[in-house]
Amino acid sequence: MKVISALMAVVSIAMALLYLTFKGPSFIQTTPETTEPDAAFTAAVGRIREFAATLEVQEVDIDPRAVTLDQKTLEFTLIDHSITARKVRSEQVLNPDGTQSIVWYGNLEPHASVVPEIAQWQDPLNFITLVKSGQTVTGTIRQGGQLYQLRPVGSHRHVVIVLDGTKMPPETDNVELPKRTLNPAPAHSASNRSAAPVTLDVMTVVPQQTVTDYQGDMLALMQLAVALANQSYINSNIDMTLRLVSYQVTDYVPNAAFPGLDLIRLRTPNDGFMDDSLSVRDQVRADVVIYIYRSAPAGDDSQSCGQALQYGSTADTAFAMVNHECIANFTFGHEIGHLQFARHEFDSDPSLTPYPFAHGYRFTAGGHTWHTVMGTQPNPPTSQRLNIWSNPDIRYEGAPLGDAESADNHRVLETTKEAISGYR
């Protein structure tokens, strides 16, 4: 009997190990309410709750050991339900400070595909993208109509933020009117688009005050912003990749009343504000510079998600600003899109120059209305943004994702990618 019992115990252990291997380690679990209070943590959660789109903030336990390059499946609990995610791809990225992070891209089960099939497709309605840096994990998750952000607070605590995509603040008008922009290729010829893959080198500039208020891993958040944009290009058959070549924390004190002034100061040489940032840009040869800020509620409770310096760009004007709270809403890629002549959907921006097809797109799939990366919120708000660019050659859940005459951001990014990637 003892032998039989021992054999049964061995079999039970083996079955448990096999189960864990198949199912994947538990990644996110809810945290007991007995967590000790912490003033910095409480203040950070308070700032998170001030964001217009925040619905709920819940502290969670995470197991960073679950996020590896080889991990094929992640099991986790999100707020009140269990989720299975399967790996689409993973990569190890080199950070500007010489450290390395793991980026893990997955699809939630079940997920949908597109026609025609795209390799390494990430379903924009059922996905998870994570950046593991040391013992912290920063990520964005969408499950159907619900958007989530996973964020470290301090060195060992994490929260899940539930976001309402219909309440996301708008990306505002460009800061400057264009004085001189890149010379776009003729709009009528598809042959002007480059078939070769290109890499855009991106520099981010973040005030120390913003980093301190964030109370998380801001560098990991920058890598997440880059990862989300890169996945959007894959999802849309755009042969372009962003690479984070510089992450600079500046002692510049943000202008709370007019954040757009910060961007003007950043791009203006020899004005006494952030001039060292321009020197760093030249050293690292960054094509695009993104200023990261936090938009606190104004007197009328309004907030903003981002701005480009101007529509279109040159090597001297390829600057934009992004509210770090809006990275989960794909604002990072949105603002870089403006620098490449991509426009909002036609209803809110009917301009036809220089490309009549350069607009985002609003479409209906699965009984709900969505908009692509360059799309904006209708009034009243009924639509949410998905991590995919307008492209009439792609159909998702039976719906075309663009219009050949008016909404083909895929085409405009392909047309302008070589010019912008050659700025430095």
Task: Name the features.
24% helix, 424 residues, 9-stranded antiparallel beta sheet, 20 strands
Question: What does this entry look like structurally?
Answer:
This protein is an alpha+beta fold. It has eight helices and 20 strands. It has helices at 2-23, 39-50, 208-214, 218-235, 259-267, 275-284, 331-339, 409-421, and strands spanning 28-30, 54-62, 73-78, 81-94, 100-108, 114-115, 126-133, 136-143, 146-153, 157-163, 198-207, 240-250, 288-293, 306-308, 319-323, 362-365, 368-371, 384-385, 391-396, 399-401. A hairpin with a 3-residue loop joins β9 (146-153) and β10. The radius of gyration is 22 Å and the shape is globular. The relative contact order is 0.13. The model is unreliable at 1-23 and 185-192 (pLDDT under 50).
